Amino acid sequence: DIVMTQSPDFLAVSLGERATINCKSSQNVLNSSKNKNSLAWYQQRPGQSPKLLIYWASTRESGVPDRFSGSGSGTDFTLTISSLQAEDVAFYYCQQYFTTPLTFGGGNKVEIK
Amino acid sequence: EVQLVGSGGGLVQPGGSLRLSCVASGFTFSGYSMHWVRQAPGKGLVWVSRIDNGGSGTSYADSVRGRFTVSRDNAQNTLYLQMNSLRVEDTAVYYCAREWDLLNFWGQGTQVTVSS
To answer: Which of A40, A51, A101 is facing B102, going by the closest CB pair?
Structure first.
């Protein structure tokens, strides 16, 4: 199974400041036929179900604010919130969909400092 | 509007059974593979099972293989998860999710508690 490792576990950022979350996969998740990395980011607000933010490592889902961006390739990926807003307080999970079983990172909790 | 509405959860004793349902609306259910993902209290997301759009292809996490069975009724736009021989460690919120390579839409989740 591909192991997904997120860091840091917890992040406190001031409103309007940048938040950066890292995700590392134990294997390369590059889909060679599409030349895209099979890596997604999800946001889970308290008491809610997960919501897709980013897929193919850097493609923003429709309706997601442009302050959210994804980057990276191969085994190392990053989710960046360029200017943290109060509604961004949540857990964030990376997930590989390169192969079954689908695997998720342990999650990062983002709070307001 | 896309909706996935889960039901069927509850409190069950170890060794017992439950069947979860997930009713889909707002999209062509038969055109999508579907997944179950669970989240234990205070923990992260764990993939449980997948079924292809026709229902003939299934896969499971090692932790549930042989105990859980995923199925679907495309005529009723409904996804199921039959859970047998339940264990305390199966306690979690169970989410159904739609696949589009990744999981691009999730239901609201249904709570399963396994306890004596």
So the answer is: A40
Quick check: helix, strand or coil at residue A44?
strand
B45, B64, B65, B99, best to mutate vs chain A, most A CBs in 10 Å:
B45
Q: Which residues of B touch A49 (CB under 8 A)?
A: 95, 106-109
Mean pLDDT of all residues in B78-96: 98
∠ CA A95-A78-A59, nearest 5°, is 70
Contact status, residue A50 vs residue A44, Cβ threshold 8 Å: yes
How much is the average pLDDT of B86-92? 98
List Cα–Cα distances, A82 to A2, A20, A69, A73, B7, in angstroms. 29, 8, 8, 20, 38
Task: List chain B residues with CB under 8 Å of A61.
Answer: 104
Q: What is the pLDDT of residues B57-66, one digit of tens each?
A: 999 999 999 9
Scanning every residue of chain A, which has its alpha carbon at the shortest distance from the alpha carbon of B99? A97
Q: Give the model confidence (pLDDT) of A4-61 as tens digits.
A: 999 888 999 999 999 999 999 999 999 999 999 999 999 999 999 999 999 999 999 9
